[in-house]
Amino acid sequence: MEKATDWTQTFFSGFILETLPFWTSKEQTQQEADFLVRTLAPAPGARILDVPCGNGRLAIALAERGFTLTGVDFTGPWVNAARLSAAQRGLNATFQQRDMRDLPWPAAFDYAFCFGNSFAYFDDSGNRAFLQAVLHTLKPGGKFVLQTNLAAESVLTQPLKPFWMKLGDQYFLHETRYDPATGQLTSGYTSIRDGQVERKQAVYRVYPFRELQQMVCAVGFTVLQSYGSLKQEPYQLGSEGLWLVASKGAESS
Asked: d(Cα 58, Cα 32) in Å, to the nearest integer?
């Protein structure tokens, strides 16, 4: 298995590791959990895969509702934090540190989801490998929800301007540029705390919705719905993000 790209090897550490949890409020986590329950309609105790799971915020929220969760993430400190949180709450949730394309559970899950704008970390072959790995983990008829803010119809209809914000005790600068020739979006992150400065860079692949939908179908999924918000509005040009719902056919392996 090819390892994660270089930027993912070094990105999730230092100040940025402490900063990213501030991007998502508890209210948003609950709204996302509501969306998944409403969209998937899972039976009590259903087995659900969260990949990548980050610090487990959404997996924990779903486990609290009576579902059986497995979370996978590349970042060790986040996996450890998720394990501790689940243990303290006595929840039926387990977490593993591994590459998001390395999912060794054939037909083990009823549902899977990828939230937190965590798709398209790799090149085209790596992104397809991730989708194939998720498909492999699902039972026939299992559903998968892919969330991304990086579909072209969303990210490229917004001005790519730098902006500052304060997150916890850090000041944070986000700068973005897009290369049409490669379809890559490069995000630069500068964190400042107590006079110390840390700079990180992430590179994402931007797909037009049509191309992303074709990739999802090419690996064996059937696309069921595409939403442009947690309110389940249809996806369209300028939507804040994409929530794509797909299912695994009985013939897919």
From this structure: 8
The whole-number mean pLDDT for each consecutive block of 10 residues of the chain, a chain of 253 residues, reads 63 82 88 98 96 96 98 95 96 97 97 95 95 98 97 95 87 94 95 91 96 97 97 97 93 61
Using the Cα atoms of residue 206, residue 27, residue 103 and residue 245 in order, give the sign of their dihedral. negative
> For residues 157 and 159, what is the distance between their CA atoms, to the nearest angstrom?
7
Architecture of domain 158-203: Single Sheet (2.20)
CA dist list (Å): 216 to 88, 195, 200: 37, 45, 30
Confirm if 103 and 51 have CB atoms less than 8 A apart. Answer: yes
Note the CATH number of domain 22-154+208-248.
Answer: 3.40.50.150
Q: Measured between alpha carbons, how far is 135 from 60 in angstroms, rounded to an integer?
A: 23
| pTM of this structure | 0.93
Residue 246, CA atoms < 13 Å, CB-side half-sphere:
28
